[in-house]
Amino acid sequence: MMNYSPARSDPPDTPRNPAIRADALNVIRGTRQVLRDLDFTVPRGQITGLLGPSGCGKTTLMRAIVGTQAKVTGTLDVLGHPAGHPALRTRIGYVTQAPSVYDDLTISQNLAYFAAILDPGHAAADRRHENVTRAIADVDLTSHADALAGNLSGGQRSRVSLAVALLGTPELLVLDEPTVGLDPVLRRDLWNLFHDIAASRGATLLISSHVMDEAERCHRLLLMREGRILADDTPDALRTRTNSETVEAAFLHLVDEAVAAARTKETTR
Amino acid sequence: MTTTTSTSPAPRPAPTGPLNLARTTATAARVLRQLHHDPRSIALMLLVPCVMLFLLRYVFDGSPHTFDSIGASLLGIFPLITMFLVTSIATLRERTSGTLERLLAMPLGKGDLIAGYALAFGTLAIIQSALATGLALWFLGLDVTGSPWLLLLVALLDALLGTALGLFVSAFAASEFQAVQFMPAVIFPQLLLCGLFTPRDNMHPALEAISNVLPMSYAVDGMNEVLKHTDMTANFVRDALIVAGCALLVLGLGAATLRRRTA
């Protein structure tokens, strides 16, 4: 069970330990098994891409990691605690696929509220103000700070949602398709920001996408299909291993391999 | 906690117990700020009860005594209905927009969220009730024997009850469309049985028994106590306590419907 209990001795949380460690991780939604026996680690201070077709379980895995997914069994340790542990709530930034911000508040009001939840009290007011200003600048929305979130374009709203996750300098950022629907310039800028966050703040990023060309920008990749991990490697190693030009080709190669393996299993049975 | 983090750049506030004052007031301020961007809703919330009382006064132009009893009851019922509607829609929006999931993944206690909503809408209810009570007493000639402060107190407790019911019901509504349908389902039976149309002891015994367990009956009873007696009667205290107790009970049930982990 991964629900925390005080009696359990957690592994010491040192920078050398992986940020996320999953072992025999299963998730059931309704009657369907969405994640099957996952076993992987996500290293610290790097960008790990979570790639796979839509419906393969990426969002469920991310929700399990941030502790909002029910019916999770197996081991899932995040920053040295079982996933969902109260101590993790200020240390993880999570951005859902659909922007989750208040449409009837301005950008700065949205951020000010979430900042007050993360770091409450009068004493922290200055620090909060700094954090809010920096987060808005990070996502390049300073000129829109006083605009209502509901009046923004889709891409701008998702950047507000991202800015909320950047508040409070989280050690782990879990981003669910953060670049969907953005123009190429913005996508490049965001990826530069992600690399900057990993390099200068030492944060770990787990970023999902179903666009394979974004894979090349990650340090490591987790390729998923139908609730299983197909591969866990660096983009280079993946391409070399499968003898492919691109990560997309490597992914297709691995899918074909998996399908073939399943077929042989069936015929030999 | 025995673990230490070497990468933590700013002091981290420890995850807190059931209620944190700063987070509660931040939530209340946020809810009021949202309303601030929606002046039309505020105007509707504050003015509609006044217009209804005004209308009622002249509907019963020939029998001011009827206006006294119905008017006083309505002063308790309006805040309940308004706050029920506003809270059920507001919390439903919080659930469907993903902001609730985001908040519960942060160090926000469920109690902070609920108390924040209750505080924000309670403030609004005070303004609404003060306007409606003032209008009824000083401009429409509502003849009340007891203190107007007691009317205001009951109105406030009713508003709290409305907030609690709205919060609870929003957990069972999948859309705004369904949430609005809960209004007739939850409020109308209470409205029919609360003694507004006919004294409760004149009802069929079965209905009277049902009305005895519905909180709105006590809200109306409380108002009628203020209407007829100069000072705080034992019955008034009982009625007020029952309404307050129901509100707290339903708020607790509402808190139980907020889950950090969902399927």
UniProtKB/TrEMBL annotation, chain A:
Q: Which InterPro entries match?
A: AAA+_ATPase, ABC_transporter-like_ATP-bd, ABC_transporter-like_CS, P-loop_NTPase
Q: Which Pfam families match?
A: ABC_tran (PF00005)
What keywords appear on the UniProt entry?
ATP-binding, Nucleotide-binding
Keyword Transcription regulation in annotation: no
**Residue ranges annotated for the ABC transporter domain, each copy included:** 20-251
A GO molecular function assigned to this protein is: ATP binding
Q: Does the keyword Phosphoprotein apply?
A: no
Which protein is depicted?
A: ABC transporter ATP-binding protein
Species assigned in the record: Streptomyces cyaneochromogenes
TrEMBL record, chain B:
From what organism does this protein derive?
A: Streptomyces cyaneochromogenes
For this entry, the protein name equals Transport permease protein
Q: What top-level branch of life does the organism fall under? A: Bacteria
> Residue limits of the ABC transmembrane type-2 domain?
36-261
Q: Which residues form the signal peptide?
A: none
Q: Which subcellular locations apply to this protein?
A: Cell membrane
| GO BP term (any one) | response to antibiotic
**What is its membrane topology?**
Multi-pass membrane protein
The record lists the membrane-crossing segments as 42-60, 72-92, 113-137, 149-172, 179-198, 240-258
Q: Which family does the record assign?
A: Belongs to the ABC-2 integral membrane protein family.
Primary site of residence: membrane
Record's keyword terms, sorted: Antibiotic resistance, Cell membrane, Membrane, Transmembrane, Transmembrane helix, Transport
Does this UniProt record's set of keywords contain Cell membrane?
Answer: yes
Among InterPro entries, the record links this protein to: ABC-2_transporter_component, ABC2_TM, ABC2_TM_bact-type, ABC_2_transport
Q: Which GO terms describe its molecular function?
A: ABC-type transporter activity
Query: What is any one of the record's Gene Ontology cellular component terms?
Result: ATP-binding cassette (ABC) transporter complex
By its UniProt entry, which PROSITE patterns does this protein fall under?
Answer: ABC_TM2 (PS51012)
